[in-house]
């Protein structure tokens, strides 16, 4: 398990205005970019080289990783002037992923599901692609035959009406031969390529990944909830976070002694919480400010912004 393709090109429309400042994979989760959590997870499984596609605010990625690496691991960026979606985006990096199976990782999830079982099943069963599936996912539209370990349909596109539907985690193992079922330059979901492969008789496998935590940070409610969930014991299992990373208030933040920040909140480095402020279930990004006497509930304060007054469910 040497390489991974991390999807970083999405627009993050459901998270606006947060994603007006940063692409979704770069928004901070417990004081560090979400994509770094993906890198940590992948590295724990043996991955040492990353490919990331970009589209929205691409310069942000180069600012975050100016030397094209993360902790000694190369990070290759491939820009998409026109957003190619998941299938087109994967086809667009085919030249970088030809030297053996690799993992694809959606850039908007926070998870510690074990990756090794899917990798081992992929190799042992001779799968072209192996999807990591969950029973408890909110959307379950992958027809899965557990006895054979094969995926039979996605989104009921083949009209099978299969009784066993599982949720797709956004994680999957891919062999380079799958590129034969993708169309370079075409704007389409990877689902289209998977269906073409199934129709051609290729083996598309599935592995249940019901252990560990799996959070889709696609909208603001799940983003806020992730900060509370991330402090539960043992999460993420693959990389125990240091106290500074799980603390509600980062050691490099400035917090007045009379202010209050609850355990479901996160105040990032260089953020400021002034006298008498109250912060509940909110996230203050690095460099954000909470004015004196402000009361925040379920809010996000972005870099360089100041929240004042009584605010509920507001992104500043």
Question: Mind explaining what this structure looks like?
Answer:
This protein is of the alpha/beta class. The chain is 19% helix and 28% strand. The strands form six sheets. Strands 1, 4, 5, 6, 7, 9, 10, 11, 12 and 13 form a ten-stranded mixed beta sheet that branches. The chain has a four-stranded parallel beta sheet with strand order 15-18-21-24, with no helix packed on it. α3 (85-91) packs across α5. The chain is elongated and about 65 Å long. The protein starts with a strand and ends with a strand. Mean pLDDT is 90; it is low at 240-244.
List the helices and strands and how they pair.
Layout: E1 3-7, E2 28-29, E3 32-33, H1 34-44, E4 49-54, H2 58-64, E5 69-70, E6 73-79, H3 85-91, E7 102-106, E8 109-111, H4 116-125, E9 129-134, E10 142-145, E11 150-154, E12 165-174, H5 190-199, E13 204-208, E14 214-216, H6 220-229, H7 243-246, E15 254-255, E16 260-261, E17 266-267, E18 272-273, E19 278-280, E20 283-284, E21 289-290, E22 295-297, E23 300-301, E24 306-307, E25 310-312
Parallel strand pairs: 1-4, 1-7, 4-6, 9-13, 15-18, 16-19, 17-20, 18-21, 19-22, 20-23, 21-24, 22-25
Antiparallel strand pairs: 2-3, 5-6, 7-12, 8-14, 9-12, 10-11, 10-12
Helix pairs in contact: 3-5
